[in-house]
Amino acid sequence: MVEPLRIVLPCEASSAATSRREMRAWLLELCGPDQLCDTCDDLVFAVSEAVTNSIDHAYLTRPTGPVSLRCAVEESPDAASGLAVVVQVGDEGAWRTPPEDPGDRGRGLMMMRASVDAMDVQVHVSGTTVVLRTDLRCPSLVPSGA
């Protein structure tokens, strides 16, 4: 089994691209193929969106701090592969409640939720953590006949 991924990113625009690159490499190590399946591509998108939200919103009223990314594999009886990926994207900033009418922006949480099997936003005095969970459906991980 692949080791958990743990990285700390600076709060800057390039960190979204870094999160995508690191997630892809980690998922390829886990799943084995040369190209990610749709499920894993969706997870990479959701993680990138969570990192971008931290960069854009978390540190508006506090000094800029880090964005952390932690990914791990866990057993999942609901997945054909028997495995799920759980990702935590955290910051040390302040939560900003999304506006009722986001206008041309503000659909990140909705898009993340649609891209994974489960999402939870944990708001604390010390920051915000978005937890994303998705069952692995990679053809390379699903036993034949499942």
Brief summary:
GO terms for molecular function: protein serine/threonine kinase activity. The protein has 146 residues and is of the alpha+beta class. It contains 3 helices and 5 strands, in the order E-H-H-E-E-H-E-E.
What this model shows, in words?
With 146 residues, the chain is an alpha+beta fold. The chain has a single domain (5-97, 107-135), classed as Histidine kinase-like ATPase, C-terminal domain (Heat Shock Protein 90, 2-Layer Sandwich). The protein is 32% helix and 27% strand. The protein is built from 3 helices and 5 strands; from the N terminus they run βααββαββ. The chain has helices at residues 14-31, 38-58, 108-115, and strands spanning 5-9, 67-75, 83-91, 118-124, 127-135. The chain has a 5-stranded antiparallel β-sheet, with helices on one face. The mean pLDDT is 89.
Quote the average pLDDT. 89
- Strand proportion, as a percent range, falls in 25-35%
Write down the CATH class: Alpha Beta
Distance between the termini: 20 Å
**Tally of distinct domains:** 1
- What is the second-level CATH architecture? 2-Layer Sandwich
Structural class, by secondary structure, is: alpha+beta
Low-confidence stretches: none
Main pleated-sheet profile: 5 strands, antiparallel
Enumerate how many helices there are, as a single number: 3
What's the order of the H and E elements?
EHHEEHEE
In order across it, which strands form the biggest sheet?
1-2-3-5-4
Reported by name, the CATH topology is: Heat Shock Protein 90
Fraction of residues in helices? Answer: 25-40%
Radius of gyration: 16 Å
The outline comes out as: globular
CATH superfamily: Histidine kinase-like ATPase, C-terminal domain
The tally of strands reads 5
InterPro entries: Anti-sigma-factor_SerPK (IPR050267), HATPase_C_sf (IPR036890), HATPase_dom (IPR003594)
Domain Histidine kinase/HSP90-like ATPase: 14-133
GO molecular function, one term: protein serine/threonine kinase activity
Pfam families: HATPase_c_2
